[in-house]
Amino acid sequence: MKKEAILHIPLSQYAYATDERSITVRIRTARNDIEECMLYYGNRVDEVEPIRITELKMDKCASDDLYDYFEVQISSDYNRVCYYFRLSDGSGEQFLYSRGFCDVMEANRTEYFQYPYIRREELLNKPEWTKNAVMYHIFPDSFANEKRGIEVTGRCFDLDGNAVETGEPAVKQNSGTAEIKPVKKEKRGFSRSLRGGTLKGITENVDYLKTLGVTLVYLNPIFKANSYHKYDTIDYFEIDPCFGTKADFRELVDTLHENGIRIVLDGVFNHCGPDFFAFKDVLEKGENSAYRDWFYKLNFPIEYKYPPNYECFAYVKDMPKLNTGNPKVRDYICRVGKYWISEFDIDGWRLDVANEVDHDTWRAFRRVVLEEKPDAFLIAEIWEDADVWLKGDQFDSAMNYMFTYLCRDFFASGRIGAEEFDEQMNKALMRYPAPVANVQMNMLDSHDVPRFLHYCDGNTDRLKLAFFYMMTAPGIPSIFYGDECCMTGEKDTEYRAPFPWNLAGGGFTKELAEWISLRKAHPALTCGSYRKAYADENGVYVFERKCPEEDLLVAVNNSSTEIKLKYKELFGTGAEAVYAPDKEATPGELILSPYGKAVMKR
């Protein structure tokens, strides 16, 4: 046996509590190396010696390209648990594993793996409403400024909120292909938009979102800022005049809530804009500014030019980096987080560049937000593995770009096959405890990357199949505005194009609404386990979603060839179709058309 591949880490994704009587335990081993894995556990403060031990068989829950993962749930009255493992390769070789490897467990209970105490404050329970969440991601400048429409025109306001004439005519947007004349080069002292989307425009189209079936809206920044994308904040307590007023925003939140839709806002606290009051003071007074310690690594005299001689977001001089380690800055950020919940009843935050802000700031932010709204939802913009931010003391979820990349490589380009897709998806899922993995923000694209259809080379069948997979996979599915209308684009001016309202409600929109309904109707698709049932070199991938209420099998044919899926032979049991656009060829055999899809219930 390959002992060097074996890994267990207490109090991590390998050992976590979901309620005060349940602990999930995992162990990693080399792939196809272990035949059987057993867990032995007991009360770490048992009054007898040796302590009483209970034996549990562990199930293989996942495999990636290198490793297998075994899992079992301890359900007992013990709130203090110690445990160890027995691993066997099926040919007679076996050993016990705790502090080290041995043939006979002679170690004291204190040398076993430990779960010191199940504290209710540290349970990985997520807001109940997130279990069935389906997100719609809106870039406000590009969505709408009227019922089912957007008059494309750049808007400009001075810092007092007075409109400034740009001299550019409006263009009625229908197809998403209208020529967009860029607003004149952005300068400090003004707030600008590019396409003219407004909060009222979103409110006018809440009925569209409800018909689609979404339950959560995520808005890119709406606070007062210089540029059209609003990631260079001027005032965190004001709505950008290009988008409307606080009254407009209140109406939007109320309308969404009345229609059963929640809302999270984009918080940009890693950096601010050049007209943020504290940075303006630093530019004016230099080293004498009372706010010099509000910023990270300033050099005097400040050179407001490229490249800047002060720390920024990347190398963007218009986005000076805030010193969140300063208690005054941290307090300011927490006041912002609380304000928009207490005054407008928003349901959470997506936090920009979360991995460059200190952990103590996010812990403080979480405490303040949850004191105001206990079921608020916090999402981190972290493109890589976000484990250290998802321990329960900072964020609930992160933007799952690994999901994006894997779907791109399998569904869009076909660069990887079904087997590798499954391996890599399992590796991604095993990064986190199941309650965390189930609320990751899954997406095919966003405001920061090319549209998924671009990677599909315009093949809408591939796009649709990827969306179907997202609606049946673990995690919260997120639709970037216009994906349901097959928007495409490689550059930001293209993938942030105005919403093509003339295409809204078309065929794909209806299909997507059907898949959203399918997801909501089946608990196995939102909180069930995930396990491969079948994968082949032709692009056929079948996976199981299972929970106590039901056992589902999801099949996708990621190829341009019709295939026959002998599901009865494959699964050894009968199954009925829950969703099957294609017909049965013979009993127990399902035809999957090119890029076909189906959900079967055991």
Describe the protein in words.
With 602 residues, this protein is α+β, with helices and mostly antiparallel strands. It folds into four domains: 3-122, Immunoglobulin-like (Sandwich); 131-269 and 324-521, TIM Barrel (Alpha-Beta Barrel), CATH 3.20.20.80; 271-323, Oligo-1,6-glucosidase, domain 2 (Alpha-Beta Complex), CATH 3.90.400; 527-601, Golgi alpha-mannosidase II (Immunoglobulin-like, Sandwich). The protein is 24% helix and 27% strand. It contains 16 helices and 34 strands. The strands form nine sheets. It has an eight-stranded parallel barrel. Strands 3, 4, 7, 8, 9 and 10 form a six-stranded antiparallel β-sheet that branches. The two termini are 36 Å apart.
Our count of domains comes out at 4
Largest sheet, order of strands side by side? 11-16-19-22-23-24-25-26
Overall geometry: globular
CATH superfamily of the largest domain: Glycosidases
Query: What's the helix count?
Result: 16
Strand content: 25-35%
What structural category characterises the helix and strand content? Answer: alpha+beta
Which CATH-level-2 architecture of the largest domain? Alpha-Beta Barrel
What is the CATH level 1 assignment of the largest domain? Answer: Alpha Beta
Rounded to the nearest angstrom, the distance between the terminal CA atoms is: 36 Å
Unreliable parts? 175-186
**Kindly state the mean pLDDT as a whole number?**
94
Biggest β-sheet strands, sense, barrel: 8 strands, parallel, barrel
Number of extended strands:
34
Rg, Cα atoms, Å: 26 Å
Helix % is 10-25%
CATH topology of the largest domain, by name, is TIM Barrel
